[in-house]
Give the backbone structure.
Amino acid sequence: MNAAAPIALTQGDPAGVGPELALLAYAERRARDLPPFFLLSEPAFVARVAANLALELQIETTTPAQACDVFPRALPVVDAGVRVVSVVAGSPDPADAPSTVRSIEQAVECVVRGEARAVVTNPIAKSNLYKAGFKHPGHTEFLAELAQRHFGGDYRAVMMLWSEELAVVPITIHIPLADAPKRLTRELIVETGEIVAHDLTTRFQIAKPRLAFSGLNPHAGEDGALGREEIDVIAPAIAELRARGVHASGPFPADTMFHAAARANYDAALCPTHDQALIPIKTLAFARGVNVTLGLPFVRTSPDHGTAFDIAGKGVADPTSLIEAIKLAGRMT
Protein backbone atom coordinates (compact mmCIF):
# COMPACT_ATOMS: atom_id res chain seq x y z
CA MET A 1 0.00 0.00 0.00
CA ASN A 2 1.23 3.46 -0.94
CA ALA A 3 0.07 5.75 1.89
CA ALA A 4 0.73 8.85 -0.24
CA ALA A 5 -1.53 7.64 -3.06
CA PRO A 6 -5.15 8.78 -3.51
CA ILE A 7 -8.20 6.66 -2.74
CA ALA A 8 -9.94 4.81 -5.58
CA LEU A 9 -13.71 5.40 -5.63
CA THR A 10 -15.96 3.18 -7.74
CA GLN A 11 -19.01 4.49 -9.61
CA GLY A 12 -21.51 1.95 -8.23
CA ASP A 13 -24.68 1.37 -10.22
CA PRO A 14 -24.78 4.35 -12.61
CA ALA A 15 -28.57 4.62 -12.26
CA GLY A 16 -28.30 4.92 -8.48
CA VAL A 17 -27.11 7.71 -6.20
CA GLY A 18 -23.42 6.69 -6.28
CA PRO A 19 -22.22 9.01 -9.06
CA GLU A 20 -23.99 12.05 -7.63
CA LEU A 21 -22.74 11.23 -4.12
CA ALA A 22 -19.19 11.23 -5.49
CA LEU A 23 -19.77 14.71 -6.92
CA LEU A 24 -21.37 15.95 -3.69
CA ALA A 25 -18.54 14.50 -1.59
CA TYR A 26 -16.01 16.25 -3.79
CA ALA A 27 -17.93 19.52 -3.35
CA GLU A 28 -17.46 19.15 0.42
CA ARG A 29 -13.82 18.08 0.25
CA ARG A 30 -12.48 21.18 2.00
CA ALA A 31 -15.19 21.52 4.61
CA ARG A 32 -14.88 17.83 5.52
CA ASP A 33 -11.09 17.64 5.12
CA LEU A 34 -11.26 14.68 2.74
CA PRO A 35 -8.13 12.91 1.52
CA PRO A 36 -7.59 12.97 -2.27
CA PHE A 37 -9.64 10.47 -4.24
CA PHE A 38 -10.44 9.71 -7.86
CA LEU A 39 -13.61 8.29 -9.39
CA LEU A 40 -13.45 5.30 -11.74
CA SER A 41 -16.13 5.83 -14.36
CA GLU A 42 -16.78 7.19 -17.82
CA PRO A 43 -15.83 10.92 -17.69
CA ALA A 44 -18.58 11.99 -20.12
CA PHE A 45 -21.18 10.21 -17.99
CA VAL A 46 -19.96 11.92 -14.81
CA ALA A 47 -20.16 15.28 -16.56
CA ARG A 48 -23.77 14.50 -17.58
CA VAL A 49 -24.70 13.68 -13.99
CA ALA A 50 -23.20 16.96 -12.79
CA ALA A 51 -25.04 18.90 -15.48
CA ASN A 52 -28.36 17.21 -14.71
CA LEU A 53 -27.98 18.20 -11.06
CA ALA A 54 -26.79 21.72 -11.94
CA LEU A 55 -23.59 21.14 -9.97
CA GLU A 56 -20.96 23.67 -10.96
CA LEU A 57 -17.93 21.47 -10.41
CA GLN A 58 -14.82 20.99 -12.47
CA ILE A 59 -14.32 17.44 -13.73
CA GLU A 60 -11.01 16.38 -15.22
CA THR A 61 -10.06 13.15 -16.95
CA THR A 62 -6.80 11.97 -15.44
CA THR A 63 -4.67 9.02 -14.40
CA PRO A 64 -4.32 7.72 -10.86
CA ALA A 65 -0.77 9.11 -10.73
CA GLN A 66 -2.06 12.61 -11.51
CA ALA A 67 -5.10 12.50 -9.25
CA CYS A 68 -3.53 14.13 -6.18
CA ASP A 69 -2.37 17.09 -8.26
CA VAL A 70 -5.76 17.45 -9.94
CA PHE A 71 -7.83 17.03 -6.76
CA PRO A 72 -7.56 20.62 -5.44
CA ARG A 73 -9.05 22.08 -8.63
CA ALA A 74 -11.25 19.36 -10.13
CA LEU A 75 -12.77 15.95 -9.44
CA PRO A 76 -10.30 13.47 -10.94
CA VAL A 77 -12.10 10.89 -13.08
CA VAL A 78 -10.12 7.90 -14.30
CA ASP A 79 -11.74 6.35 -17.36
CA ALA A 80 -12.80 2.83 -16.43
CA GLY A 81 -12.73 1.91 -20.11
CA VAL A 82 -16.35 0.71 -20.29
CA ARG A 83 -19.01 3.09 -21.56
CA VAL A 84 -22.11 3.70 -19.46
CA VAL A 85 -24.67 2.53 -21.98
CA SER A 86 -28.04 4.14 -21.47
CA VAL A 87 -28.84 5.42 -18.02
CA VAL A 88 -31.92 7.15 -16.74
CA ALA A 89 -31.44 8.02 -13.07
CA GLY A 90 -33.51 5.63 -11.00
CA SER A 91 -33.99 3.12 -13.83
CA PRO A 92 -31.25 0.47 -13.66
CA ASP A 93 -30.27 -1.28 -16.87
CA PRO A 94 -28.51 -4.69 -16.88
CA ALA A 95 -26.54 -3.45 -19.91
CA ASP A 96 -24.62 -1.21 -17.53
CA ALA A 97 -23.46 -4.11 -15.34
CA PRO A 98 -20.08 -4.34 -17.15
CA SER A 99 -19.22 -0.74 -16.29
CA THR A 100 -20.18 -1.32 -12.66
CA VAL A 101 -18.10 -4.49 -12.34
CA ARG A 102 -15.12 -3.08 -14.23
CA SER A 103 -14.98 -0.08 -11.95
CA ILE A 104 -14.61 -2.39 -8.94
CA GLU A 105 -11.97 -4.50 -10.67
CA GLN A 106 -9.96 -1.45 -11.65
CA ALA A 107 -10.08 -0.01 -8.15
CA VAL A 108 -8.47 -3.16 -6.77
CA GLU A 109 -5.94 -3.19 -9.62
CA CYS A 110 -4.97 0.38 -8.73
CA VAL A 111 -4.26 -0.70 -5.14
CA VAL A 112 -2.23 -3.67 -6.37
CA ARG A 113 -0.09 -1.36 -8.51
CA GLY A 114 0.38 1.14 -5.68
CA GLU A 115 -1.67 3.79 -7.52
CA ALA A 116 -4.32 3.90 -4.78
CA ARG A 117 -4.11 3.51 -1.03
CA ALA A 118 -7.61 2.09 -0.50
CA VAL A 119 -10.86 1.18 -2.26
CA VAL A 120 -14.16 2.93 -1.52
CA THR A 121 -17.13 1.42 -3.30
CA ASN A 122 -20.39 3.12 -4.19
CA PRO A 123 -23.60 1.04 -3.89
CA ILE A 124 -24.49 -1.62 -6.43
CA ALA A 125 -27.80 -3.32 -7.22
CA LYS A 126 -27.04 -7.02 -6.98
CA SER A 127 -30.32 -8.04 -8.61
CA ASN A 128 -29.39 -5.96 -11.63
CA LEU A 129 -25.92 -7.51 -11.83
CA TYR A 130 -27.36 -11.02 -11.52
CA LYS A 131 -29.32 -10.44 -14.73
CA ALA A 132 -25.99 -9.84 -16.46
CA GLY A 133 -24.35 -12.99 -15.07
CA PHE A 134 -22.72 -11.70 -11.86
CA LYS A 135 -22.02 -14.80 -9.72
CA HIS A 136 -21.33 -13.33 -6.28
CA PRO A 137 -23.73 -12.68 -3.37
CA GLY A 138 -22.40 -9.13 -3.13
CA HIS A 139 -19.48 -6.73 -3.03
CA THR A 140 -17.82 -8.48 -0.08
CA GLU A 141 -17.54 -11.88 -1.74
CA PHE A 142 -16.44 -10.37 -5.06
CA LEU A 143 -13.67 -8.42 -3.35
CA ALA A 144 -12.47 -11.58 -1.64
CA GLU A 145 -12.18 -13.25 -5.06
CA LEU A 146 -10.28 -10.25 -6.45
CA ALA A 147 -7.91 -10.38 -3.49
CA GLN A 148 -7.22 -14.04 -4.18
CA ARG A 149 -6.73 -13.29 -7.89
CA HIS A 150 -4.14 -10.58 -7.29
CA PHE A 151 -2.49 -11.54 -4.00
CA GLY A 152 -2.80 -15.32 -3.96
CA GLY A 153 -3.90 -17.26 -0.91
CA ASP A 154 -7.40 -17.73 0.44
CA TYR A 155 -9.26 -14.77 1.91
CA ARG A 156 -12.51 -14.76 3.83
CA ALA A 157 -13.93 -11.28 3.89
CA VAL A 158 -15.85 -10.14 6.95
CA MET A 159 -18.38 -7.31 6.87
CA MET A 160 -18.19 -4.78 9.69
CA LEU A 161 -20.48 -1.77 9.99
CA TRP A 162 -18.66 1.02 11.80
CA SER A 163 -19.56 4.35 13.34
CA GLU A 164 -18.16 6.40 16.18
CA GLU A 165 -20.96 5.07 18.39
CA LEU A 166 -20.88 1.40 17.48
CA ALA A 167 -19.14 -1.25 15.39
CA VAL A 168 -21.00 -4.46 14.53
CA VAL A 169 -20.24 -7.65 12.62
CA PRO A 170 -22.91 -10.07 11.35
CA ILE A 171 -21.46 -13.58 11.49
CA THR A 172 -23.88 -14.87 8.87
CA ILE A 173 -24.72 -12.31 6.21
CA HIS A 174 -26.85 -12.56 3.07
CA ILE A 175 -28.71 -15.79 3.65
CA PRO A 176 -32.31 -16.57 4.59
CA LEU A 177 -32.95 -16.28 8.31
CA ALA A 178 -34.10 -19.90 8.41
CA ASP A 179 -30.63 -20.99 7.25
CA ALA A 180 -28.67 -18.99 9.85
CA PRO A 181 -28.75 -21.61 12.67
CA LYS A 182 -27.42 -24.26 10.28
CA ARG A 183 -24.61 -21.99 9.03
CA LEU A 184 -23.63 -20.80 12.51
CA THR A 185 -20.81 -23.19 13.31
CA ARG A 186 -18.12 -23.02 15.94
CA GLU A 187 -15.51 -22.80 13.19
CA LEU A 188 -17.25 -19.85 11.53
CA ILE A 189 -17.54 -17.94 14.81
CA VAL A 190 -13.88 -18.52 15.70
CA GLU A 191 -12.63 -17.57 12.23
CA THR A 192 -14.77 -14.42 12.19
CA GLY A 193 -13.66 -13.42 15.68
CA GLU A 194 -9.98 -13.83 14.83
CA ILE A 195 -10.31 -11.75 11.65
CA VAL A 196 -12.14 -8.97 13.50
CA ALA A 197 -9.62 -8.92 16.35
CA HIS A 198 -6.69 -8.88 13.93
CA ASP A 199 -8.01 -6.03 11.80
CA LEU A 200 -9.15 -3.94 14.77
CA THR A 201 -5.54 -4.14 15.94
CA THR A 202 -3.80 -3.56 12.62
CA ARG A 203 -6.28 -1.20 10.90
CA PHE A 204 -7.82 0.61 13.87
CA GLN A 205 -4.82 0.55 16.23
CA ILE A 206 -6.78 -0.99 19.11
CA ALA A 207 -4.12 -2.89 21.07
CA LYS A 208 -6.46 -5.43 22.71
CA PRO A 209 -9.85 -5.37 20.98
CA ARG A 210 -12.83 -6.37 23.10
CA LEU A 211 -15.34 -8.51 21.21
CA ALA A 212 -18.85 -9.05 22.56
CA PHE A 213 -21.00 -11.83 21.10
CA SER A 214 -24.77 -11.87 21.11
CA GLY A 215 -26.84 -14.99 21.34
CA LEU A 216 -28.96 -16.29 18.50
CA ASN A 217 -32.12 -16.89 20.48
CA PRO A 218 -34.21 -14.60 22.68
CA HIS A 219 -32.57 -14.07 26.07
CA ALA A 220 -29.47 -15.82 24.67
CA GLY A 221 -31.34 -19.11 24.88
CA GLU A 222 -32.25 -18.76 28.57
CA ASP A 223 -30.05 -21.67 29.65
CA GLY A 224 -31.34 -23.89 26.87
CA ALA A 225 -35.05 -23.29 27.39
CA LEU A 226 -35.28 -21.20 24.21
CA GLY A 227 -32.66 -22.99 22.13
CA ARG A 228 -29.28 -24.67 22.57
CA GLU A 229 -27.14 -22.80 20.01
CA GLU A 230 -25.67 -20.63 22.75
CA ILE A 231 -24.67 -23.67 24.81
CA ASP A 232 -23.58 -26.00 22.01
CA VAL A 233 -22.01 -23.59 19.50
CA ILE A 234 -21.53 -19.98 20.54
CA ALA A 235 -20.15 -20.40 24.08
CA PRO A 236 -17.59 -23.06 23.02
CA ALA A 237 -16.45 -20.79 20.17
CA ILE A 238 -15.98 -17.89 22.59
CA ALA A 239 -13.96 -20.15 24.89
CA GLU A 240 -11.76 -21.17 21.97
CA LEU A 241 -11.19 -17.54 21.03
CA ARG A 242 -10.14 -16.77 24.59
CA ALA A 243 -7.74 -19.71 24.51
CA ARG A 244 -6.23 -18.16 21.35
CA GLY A 245 -5.70 -14.83 23.11
CA VAL A 246 -8.75 -12.94 21.86
CA HIS A 247 -10.65 -10.80 24.37
CA ALA A 248 -14.12 -12.31 23.76
CA SER A 249 -17.21 -12.25 25.96
CA GLY A 250 -20.80 -13.48 25.83
CA PRO A 251 -23.11 -14.74 24.55
CA PHE A 252 -25.34 -11.88 25.69
CA PRO A 253 -29.03 -11.30 24.95
CA ALA A 254 -29.10 -9.19 21.80
CA ASP A 255 -31.82 -6.92 23.16
CA THR A 256 -29.59 -5.64 25.99
CA MET A 257 -26.29 -5.21 24.14
CA PHE A 258 -26.71 -1.87 22.44
CA HIS A 259 -27.64 0.75 25.02
CA ALA A 260 -24.91 3.27 25.88
CA ALA A 261 -23.69 1.60 29.08
CA ALA A 262 -23.38 -1.79 27.38
CA ARG A 263 -21.54 -0.36 24.36
CA ALA A 264 -18.85 1.03 26.67
CA ASN A 265 -17.75 -2.54 27.44
CA TYR A 266 -16.71 -3.63 23.94
CA ASP A 267 -15.09 -2.41 20.72
CA ALA A 268 -17.20 -4.53 18.35
CA ALA A 269 -20.39 -6.54 18.70
CA LEU A 270 -20.60 -9.81 16.76
CA CYS A 271 -24.08 -11.16 16.08
CA PRO A 272 -25.22 -14.47 14.57
CA THR A 273 -27.62 -12.91 12.06
CA HIS A 274 -27.57 -9.97 9.66
CA ASP A 275 -30.40 -7.95 11.18
CA GLN A 276 -29.31 -8.46 14.79
CA ALA A 277 -26.17 -6.53 13.90
CA LEU A 278 -27.43 -4.00 11.37
CA ILE A 279 -30.63 -2.81 13.04
CA PRO A 280 -28.88 -1.19 16.03
CA ILE A 281 -26.20 0.60 14.03
CA LYS A 282 -28.67 1.84 11.44
CA THR A 283 -30.84 3.13 14.29
CA LEU A 284 -27.95 4.90 16.01
CA ALA A 285 -26.00 6.16 12.99
CA PHE A 286 -28.01 5.65 9.81
CA ALA A 287 -26.40 8.45 7.79
CA ARG A 288 -22.94 8.05 9.31
CA GLY A 289 -22.42 4.30 9.24
CA VAL A 290 -19.63 2.87 7.11
CA ASN A 291 -19.34 -0.64 5.68
CA VAL A 292 -15.77 -1.90 6.22
CA THR A 293 -14.52 -5.16 4.75
CA LEU A 294 -12.13 -6.95 7.10
CA GLY A 295 -9.88 -9.86 6.21
CA LEU A 296 -8.56 -8.46 2.91
CA PRO A 297 -4.98 -7.46 2.05
CA PHE A 298 -6.22 -3.94 1.27
CA VAL A 299 -8.61 -1.44 2.85
CA ARG A 300 -12.16 -1.26 1.50
CA THR A 301 -14.96 0.88 2.85
CA SER A 302 -18.40 1.75 1.51
CA PRO A 303 -21.47 3.79 2.43
CA ASP A 304 -23.88 1.92 4.65
CA HIS A 305 -26.84 2.26 2.30
CA GLY A 306 -28.04 1.09 -1.08
CA THR A 307 -28.50 2.55 -4.53
CA ALA A 308 -31.61 4.55 -3.54
CA PHE A 309 -33.09 4.41 -7.05
CA ASP A 310 -36.19 6.20 -5.78
CA ILE A 311 -34.29 9.45 -5.18
CA ALA A 312 -31.48 9.13 -7.75
CA GLY A 313 -31.10 12.20 -9.95
CA LYS A 314 -33.41 14.35 -7.82
CA GLY A 315 -30.67 16.24 -6.02
CA VAL A 316 -31.76 15.15 -2.53
CA ALA A 317 -29.25 12.35 -1.83
CA ASP A 318 -27.22 12.75 1.37
CA PRO A 319 -23.47 12.19 0.84
CA THR A 320 -22.69 11.85 4.56
CA SER A 321 -22.15 8.07 4.59
CA LEU A 322 -19.88 8.22 1.53
CA ILE A 323 -17.94 11.10 3.07
CA GLU A 324 -17.51 9.06 6.26
CA ALA A 325 -16.39 6.05 4.18
CA ILE A 326 -13.73 8.14 2.42
CA LYS A 327 -12.55 9.65 5.71
CA LEU A 328 -12.36 6.23 7.37
CA ALA A 329 -10.42 4.76 4.44
CA GLY A 330 -7.95 7.61 4.82
CA ARG A 331 -7.70 7.04 8.56
CA MET A 332 -7.17 3.29 8.14
CA THR A 333 -4.32 3.86 5.67
Observations:
- The chain has a mean pLDDT of 94.
- The first strand starts at residue 7 and ends at 10.
- The first helix runs from residue 18 to 27.
